[in-house]
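Support request, please re-run this one:
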Amino acid sequence: MVKEKVSKGSGRSRLAGLELGPPTLIVVVLQQTSSQLFNPRSQPSRMHPIWNIPELLAYILSFLDDKSHLLQCALVCRAFSVEAAPLIWKEVEDFRHLFGCFPNNTISMEMSGDSSSPNRTFLFLHLPHPAEWDHMRSRASMIKELTFSEFDNYDAIIEVIHRQKIDLTFPELVSLNFYIEVAKRFQTFLPLFAASRLQKLDISFQGSNDGLINAAMETLLAQAHPFRSLEIGATSFPELSQNYAIQLLETTPSINSLCLGLPTLDGEEMVEVAGRLPNLQNLRLEFCDNDGERTTYSPGFRSLVSLDAWAQYTIALAIVQAMTSPNIASLQLNILDEIIEPLGNLFDSIATMANLNCVVLFFHDSEFPQWEDVEPLLSCPLISNFHVNVAGFKQQRLVSICQPDPIRRVLKVDSRVLGKCFRVLALRSKSVGEGTRRGQQKKEGPHALTPTSVTE
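Re-run finished. Output below.
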């Protein structure tokens, strides 16, 4: 029976293969389960909450071409299976954009630019009458996630909304993604979300218009959203905006995930403040310029579980050394500059993280680390996922990690199997440390391990 298949998970694999192109496949599922699946009481744990809003569901399905039968089913039945819900959401991704709250007969869309990433300009077909404005407000009150793409231009629509003094708000909105190249649009968009209680914000500033960036950050600070996830990216972040951002961090202790993609000098003070966030668990830093001079950070980040940093070696080392969190389990570092000084300090600092179980290191423009650098990490008992990558390796190029005397062993590995090599090295280093080093060396002889022996 279909109901049993869905509950056991096989229904998910069957639906996952659909692209909602041939609607009859999904309709068959709906028709065969009409007496059970559509009854909310029969499967209270299998229903997706969005199906409890028939009008919203009907609007979502209106974006699907030639799905009238499926749309009709949606209007009379109040629920779909939970497996079908994410598929339909995926197919109608445009609903997560602003025009999702406008009825189809009120706006037009003009396409321009490249076909792979076209620019879309939205215009009102006519000035909406009061009933249509009410309809838009009703739809806006249902939306929980919005994305503003750099390819979408809503300027004309927003201008009409402001000129007509339309109170269009998004009280249920919790996730907002801003990817806009024209900084001026932030001033017109952000007032729409004053009544929202945003938990997730991803905002990227392009260009260097300090006045507009400052105005946007001031607005965000004044709106006082209870953020849990915050991402801020900018090619240039003026000092006043830094101050607003610092105040935002200081007044939002609910933040547990923070991503800063800023010029190094613009973001360092924010990192200091982030270290004092009581609930911060995930921190991602993208300091990708050559202006960093900081070599120390104040200790902090006591709740941190995951750190992902793109930075120069000195900055990455300073951040790692500031990690006093006993809970940190995942560390990913992308070292962007050439390393002149020994890597030992970095690896020694990483090795002190008691609960670390995942380490991913990527070295750009650097030589591969030597055995004496890596050895402290190989002795960490909890690390189960260890990857080291070096930019510029060709697929067949061999690298050498030389273990110092008295055990002169050279391990040659292909760059594709580095992660497994380190696990082998960890096991061998333990056995060597138990007093069997010289005996083991006599048995095996002074031969180098080959890539074949590592991958077996």
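Residues 418-444 form the longest helix (27 residues). Residues 1-45, 393-456 have pLDDT under 50 and may be disordered.
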